[in-house]
Each structure stands twice: as structure tokens, then as C-alpha cells.
Write a structure and sequence with these properties.
Elements lengths: L1 H10 L2 H17 L3 H4 L1 H7 L16 H12 L3 H13 L3 H25 L2 E2 L5 E2 L2 H8 L3 H38 L3 H16 L2 H30 L4 H13 L9 H20 L6 H5 L7 H29 L15 H10 L1 H34 L1 H19 L4 H4 L2 H18 L1 H13 L4 H4 L4
Length: 457
Amino acid sequence: MNKIVAFSDWLWGYPIVTLLLLSSLFLTIYLGFIQFRHFGYMMKQTFGSINREPKGEGTITPRQALTSALSSTVGAANIVGVPTAIMMGGPGAVFWMMVIAFLGMALKYSENVLGLFYREKNSKDEFVGGPTYYMKKGFKNKKVGIVFAFIFALALMLELIPSIMVQGNSAASTVEDTFNINAGVIGIILAILASLVVFGGIKRIATFTEMIVPVMVGLYCIMGFIIIIINIQHVPGVIVLVIEKAFNPDAALGGSFGAALATTVRWGFARGIYSNEAGLGTSPIAHAAAKTDHPVRQAFWSVSEIVVDTLIICSTTAFVVLVSDVWKAKDAKAQSAALTARAFNDAFGTFGSWIVSVSMVFFVFSTIIVVIYYGSRMAEYLFGLTAGFIMKIIYVLSIAVGAFGAGTQLWNLLDIALACVLIPNIIAVVVLAPKVKELTTEFFTGKSYYLKDKGKN
């Protein structure tokens, strides 16, 4: 088992980060830097059209697809992962986190364009899509596509069992530490609440996330902004520090300058990528159900996911940790996961600890709700609707099992399984990049889409 853990740690270090960086960079260049050239237009078509009646066919609204996908990406890592990146890679890691966020937009955009273009209707008359569909239907070699789709679906379906256990344990442990309520009891309560949502299908999940995501993100960010404002005199210095350490990191991080810089970039890239899930292929599963008149238009909403998850939430956490100086404490590196809670506690006392704990529980619970949907969709793809229903039961039970601390041996396999999800998807998106470019050109030159929005036809 130690060898598996060591291999997993190595794989999710430079190899996976490099793969995600190169694919993001390739798609950014291949698509003509679309996320930079049309960033304002994308934001206008998403955040600027939230209350607009959606165009085209679909099962849920574009906003519901966004909040559903955000529920998966906004998790405990936004609170505990960012300070860990700062302590392991230095303050400069925050800069590289922003860089990979913008590059990753091209990757997330591409997988969502494909997910929507190749989507289908299931026997319940719901729109379904995602990597399994564009692998199966998009590859010229159909046998290879089917194999890729099978590996992706099976790996994601199984990976979510230990993943949900970890999430359930994280939420239950947080409540136990803060409010002294037994973790097992919390796990059972979370499992019951999750079942009430997930067995209602995508429409109930979308309704739930549409209601809860703005509240949980808003509460956490507002409280974080208050801490930043309280320490506003430190903000200019922190910005200078982040930029300076991005290119001239402390030698202690890696020994030599080159090693230190590599460490800083690695942790910044890793945090940005892992947080927004670009390349993982989960986002298209949610967005495939959205009402839209063109795959490209809905894919803009996936770009806005990264804006919320990384550019807003992760940046808030980073600045809270840096301006409050909690990262300078002697035990900061050993206690990196607790730095956000420490900063909130310093600013607001016990109430601050409660805010972090409540945010953590909401972030984790909303993540669980949506990943159960993802997993059940994979089971449905592989074995039919009944299998999807059975996997929902297994996932719900996994919440309680994880809260009790059971299944810890499975947790060690989590990252290996996740690599079996990510690698086939990255290959598929790069192979199918010409289709993404074709659809992008169609949208931006067609009289019914971009030109009509701009009043140029």
C-alpha cells in the first residue's frame, strides 16, 4: 500500500500538472486565445444574462447547470487547499494559481463544447452528455472511443465511493470539532439529507444548488472580504509579495533557485487546476442538461465556473491568509489546513470559526450531492437506469460510512482512480479539438449567434 501511495503522490505531482498545463496551453493557442479575446462577451452572456429566458432545448436552465457544476468544484479544498499551496510553494503560488486558471478556461470550455454537441436524451427524456458520449461518438476509431468511454465511466463511478467517504468524513469531523456533535450522527444526518435531494433527479438537484450555492459562496466571500478590508493596509504589500515570489521564490522551498521556482509553479498550478476541475470531465455532465441554442453558448458558463471557483473564492482565501499574517506563524506549515479558520477566528472570534465550519459543511455537502449525480450517470451509461439508482444508494451510504472513519484503505486508491478519469478525458479533448474549433468558428461567424448578439447581422 505504501508503494501505491508513493506512486500516487508522484503521479499527481509534476506528471499530471504538466499534462494539464500543456493541454490547456495547446487549446488556448489553438482556439486563438478565446478566453482572453472574448472574456467580456462571455461574462455578459453568463452573469449578465442570469435572469434572461434561456434559448433552445434542455432539461434545466443554464444558471442551474452552472450552480450544479459549481457545487462539485467548490469544496473543502477552497478553504484548506489554498493555504497548503501557500505554505508548500510560497506566496508566489497564488500568482501561478491565477495563471493556470486563465489557461484552464480553454480546456474547460473545450470539454463542455464537446459534451453539449454530442449529448443525447435518455429514456426519461432528460438530456445527458459528457466525456463518455464525445468519446463514443466523436472518435473516428469507434472501438478506441468505446474503450476510452468505458475506462472513464467505470473509473469515475468507482472513484466517487472513496471520494464521497472522504467528503463525508471531512464534513462530519468539522462539525464534531466545532460543535462537539458525534461525527457518526452527523454522517447519518448528511446521508438522509443527501438522499432527499439526489433521488429527485437532476431537476431537484439543480433547484437545490441554485438555492444554496449563491448563499454559501456569498457568505464565505463577504466574511473574507471583511477580513481583507480590516487588513487593507497590508494588501499592497501582499500583492507585491505574491508577484515577487512568483519569479523569485525563497530558496528554502527547493534548495536551488530553479528547484524553488519549480516548486512554486507546481503548487500554484496544482491548486488552480484541482480546484476548478478543468480537464476532469465532470463539468460537461452537468452542463449537458442545460437549455441552450448552441454548445458554445453554454460552454461560456463553464468558463464562469473558473471565475467563481478560482479567481474569486480561492483568491479570497489566499488574501485572507496572507493579509492576516497567519501564514507567518511558527507552526503554519504543519497546520496549513487550519490557517483559514485561524484567520477567521482572529478576526471574528468564535463566530469566525463557526463561519468556516458552516462554509466547509455547505461546500462539502453540495459537492456530494452533485458528484452522486455524476456517478449515477456513469452507472446509467454503462449498465442502464437501474444501475444508476443502485449506485445512488451506495453513494448515499458511503457518506455515513466515511463519517464513521471506515473505508480508509480505499482512500489511498482515490488519486489513482482519479488519474484514470482525467488522462483519457484530456486525450479525448485534444484529439477532438478540431470539432471544438469548428463549432467555435460556427458560433462566432454565424448570423444567429455572436453576430446577432452584437447587432452585426
